Amino acid sequence: MSKPKTRYIIIFGLIVLLQIVSLFSSGTSFDTSATEGIDKSDTAWMIVATAFVLFMTPGLSFFYGGMVSYKNVISTMLQSFIALGVISLLWYLVGFSLAFGESYHGLIGNPLTFFSFNNVGLAPNADFSATIPFLIFALFQLKFAIITPALITGSFAERVKFTSYLIFMCLFSLFIYTPLAHWTWHPEGFLRQWGVLDFAGGTVVHMSAGFAALAGAYVLGKRETKNHQPANIPFIILGTGMLWFGWFGFNAGSALAADGLAVQAFATTNMASASAMITWVMFDALVGRRISAMGACIGAVVGLVAITPAAGFVTLGQSVFIGFVAAIVSNLAVYYKQRTSLDDTLDVFPCHGVGGIVGMLLTGVFAADVGLIHGDPTTFLYHLLAMVIVGAFTFFGSLLIFKITSSITKLRVTREEESIGLDISQHAETLNVVPSSN
């Protein structure tokens, strides 16, 4: 039996084992009468917000899929879309417990606390949110866990083996994402205890994805052919619209209630993205580049990234400024990255990594009552320290995970497979579109 078939048998065996564990675990018996403390409006909003955030991952697949060459569109989109299935099962089994289970010294959760969603029921859990069912809190957090590894795929698009990506995604989610979520969002997480503010994932999602992307681009090396026209600009516009729409759930949903804080986060999210989009295209024009649809879309996403950690802590004017600064810094980061040997295919680090850093630092500057502009440097200095810790942990941890993955299977497709495209070589599927000769 060939090695690829052996790997698939092992993977399918693990899936079967998951079914057995699920059937025989104690689980949670849902008591629909357990309504004490539940606020119906908060619950309704969180159901909607959770669906919004799920919608972002298909949006990301269109956003990334439109940017790559025509022969890699399907593979790139699937790398995002498949996370909906893989991470959902991991989160259910042990991921949620590692992120939000009983804390071990503020570093990681007990994997048995909520194993297979045991004790995750319809009654609220006051440690995390006192007015919504604990189950919807767990599902809301799941959507963040889903999109994070999907974001990373943009850095090694057009050259990664699909099976190796699946292995990397699982290991990253368990050993990088869940500790970061625990440090930042668990009440006993050490970054949260320090007072580090991350309203909706600028550190946990975007910085982690950015530094993991940097590691991925370094490990997988350059593509054989880097120069190509994006396959489908309308896909990029559609994906950006889906992301912007879903980001209202991402940020406003992180209030965990239908209240004024959610409205504040909704408003700051919109204004930062608008500011960044206009700043990006005008900056392009200022330095002699064409105003482009792709530039407008990238700028909008950078603004969304940068406001994420600050959304519930800043004013509208400050959110506009955050979008402005993030757009210029990320635009310059993209420009100078292109002059290096690093082949981060879709500029994940310059946009998500750098955008997340800008947002995190400016949160420490502007955050209501505790920001640097209020006269106390404590929060800002802890944000600087957290930036170093998160960046180093994610980058070097991801390097190790890529090394482990490469010991199991090859990370990169062959030169021939890359030449014909991953759609055909990895999935035996094609857009059936002949590129223009112009």
Give a summary of the structure in a few sentences.
The protein has helices spanning 3-24, 40-67, 73-81, 83-100, 134-152, 162-185, 190-194, 202-220, 233-252, 260-286, 293-307, 316-337, 348-366, 378-408, 415-420, 422-427, and strands at residues 103-104, 108-109. By secondary structure, the chain is mainly alpha-helical.
Describe the fold and architecture.
The chain has helices at residues 3-24, 40-67, 73-81, 83-100, 134-152, 162-185, 190-194, 202-220, 233-252, 260-286, 293-307, 316-337, 348-366, 378-408, 415-420, 422-427; strands spanning 103-104, 108-109. The protein has a two-stranded antiparallel ribbon with strand order 1-2. The model has no long low-confidence stretch (mean pLDDT 93). It has one domain: Orthogonal Bundle (Ammonium transporter fold), CATH 1.10.3430. Helix 8 (202-220) runs antiparallel to helix 13. With 438 residues, it is mostly helical. The chain is built from 16 helices and two strands.
